[in-house]
Design goal:
- The protein has one domain.
- The protein is built from 4 helices and no strands.
Length: 130
């Protein structure tokens, strides 16, 4: 007899905490790649989008492995994640731009704040649809 998958065998609080730590790893990859690219001279918005792609791919792989197996094949899950994350990245980039240009916040701090928003929003989407 097989046991239920990771997403159905844990209380909601433990699942949310596990999701948080997994996403923090992906977030660290995202942020590290962003800082590396900007230090290498990649324009800020290009680095923002490229690190988003790197972080999203990392998160999908980690979430499928440690949080929930996913309802779809990896490629479809990744494409759906890019689609849903793509919506939130547009909102997050608006926050990023506003923080930098209107509030004078350093670009790395603006990245951290705007990504925080997108990861919280994506948690709700992933929990509901993936």
């Amino acid at each position: 007899m097989s046991s239920p998958g990771p997403a159905t065998s844990r209380p909601a609080v433990r699942g949310a905490a596990q999701y948080f730590w997994i996403v923090c790893v992906g977030y660290g990859v995202d942020l590290a790649s962003y800082v590396g690219m900007t230090e290498a001279g990649v324009p800020l918005y290009a680095a923002y989008l490229a690190s988003f792609a790197i972080g999203t791919t990392c998160n999908v792989a980690l979430l499928r492995r440690f949080f929930a197996a996913g309802r779809h094949a990896f490629g479809k899950d990744l494409a759906l994640s890019f689609a849903s994350n793509g919506f939130f990245i547009l909102l997050a980039m608006g926050i990023y731009a506003a923080l930098m240009h209107l509030a004078g916040v350093h670009h790395v701090i603006a990245k951290v704040i705007s990504n925080g928003f997108s990861f919280v929003a994506n948690y709700q989407v992933r929990k509901s649809f993936f």
